[in-house]
Amino acid sequence: MHMSSVAPVAASEFSAEERESVYKAIFTRRDVRSQFKAGKPVPDDVLKRLLTAAHHAPSVGFMQPWNFIVIKSVFQKTLMKMAFSRANDEAAALFPDERRALYSSLKLEGISAAPINLCITCDRSRGGPVVLGRTHNYDTDLYSTVCAVQNLWLAARAEGIGVGWVSIVRDAELRKILQLPDHVVPVAYLCIGYVDELYATPELELRGWRQRLDLDSLIFNESWGNP
Amino acid sequence: MHMSSVAPVAASEFSAEERESVYKAIFTRRDVRSQFKAGKPVPDDVLKRLLTAAHHAPSVGFMQPWNFIVIKSVFQKTLMKMAFSRANDEAAALFPDERRALYSSLKLEGISAAPINLCITCDRSRGGPVVLGRTHNYDTDLYSTVCAVQNLWLAARAEGIGVGWVSIVRDAELRKILQLPDHVVPVAYLCIGYVDELYATPELELRGWRQRLDLDSLIFNESWGNP
């Protein structure tokens, strides 16, 4: 009988130390732009561990819609850096005068400094026309792909590797650089490399861009707006 | 000089044991529908730790667009269960005959069984009209919110708590139940509770719905399709 093979097993408990390690990864993870160590490549087996962590993210209908495009060439990084710069100039112009100087002073990417760039994509056609769990929210495949990003980010933190997410780029330019087919969405473009130092709290907070919100003010009971 | 306060500090290294704990959470995390323990509530301080983990997710422009709606009442759970059932009947009808019987045999939610339901939402207006990093991809706030979901999911695993993501519900019905304003998107509706047992691999794989893909086939070099 096939059913015997689908019985759950004892959930492996976490010790207090193991639990604290998970929280350590969560609380000390940073979006890295400037701290990548020059001249220290990420070995293939370590990169494979990070991608394996990403591949074990939850996905709607077990769709596993992700692909991983590993970019190491100076040529591709240069194209990406140029695309970022164009978009960042456009972005800076959108901020009011009193914010623009601060915006322009922020370093928002580590494309060239990071030994590895990685684009995590979502193939929207992967599960066929009807995907379990996606029937009422078509974008859950994109959400699954983001879960893969966060898995990789936390695994990287545990490996001593920093990750930065570059979102300031025109979609059409990124698609052209990576030669993406139309049914594939570039969800995250990541810069990846070893780090010795990190900011103690998010860099945008330290530089006075925006403060951390009070958690209690974000929690409601039973329905929206009910404290 | 303000700059001295924004210097990075030594990145706290992870020991081999700490690193393995992070991977343990990633690899043993499951989407839980049936294993919630009856009669074991989640204490408020434990729930607060999970929400704190979610609140420390990366967010575009440090926007922190999330809110957390904690649902414990039988009334709200019953409304949600009814909304799920209606949507699930619609979903079942979309599958071809040979898949429909298997689909209908799957348990896809633990709304009533889980002591806590939690909706994690995205307030698209939170950062004002121009958000750093969102100028070229408006949906990065939704992605940030999903990062919060995955942080919570992994923290929950470390706490011995299971999480299941219910995505089969009409958006309009969920919005009405939770009284969401138009500018707020319900990104994830989660069922949360203690578990003693979990499946060794994803339930949809065990039940023959879909197999895990070969990771190597998902990795490309430099651009799409380049193995």
The CATH topology of chain A is NADH Oxidase
Distance between the termini of chain A: 50 Å
- Give average pLDDT of chain A, whole number: 96
The biggest beta sheet of chain A reads: 4 strands, antiparallel
CATH class of chain A reads: Alpha Beta
User: Greatest chain-chain interface?
Assistant: A-B, 122 and 122 residues
CA-based shape of chain A: globular
The count of domains of chain A is 1
Helix count of chain A, per DSSP?
7
Q: How much helicity do the residues of chain A have?
A: 25-40%
Q: Structural class, from helix and strand content of chain A?
A: alpha+beta
The CATH fourth-level homologous superfamily of chain A: NADH Oxidase
The main sheet of chain A orders its strands as 2-3-5-4
Along the chain, the helix and strand elements of chain A come as EHHEHHEHEHEEHE
Low-confidence stretches of chain A: none
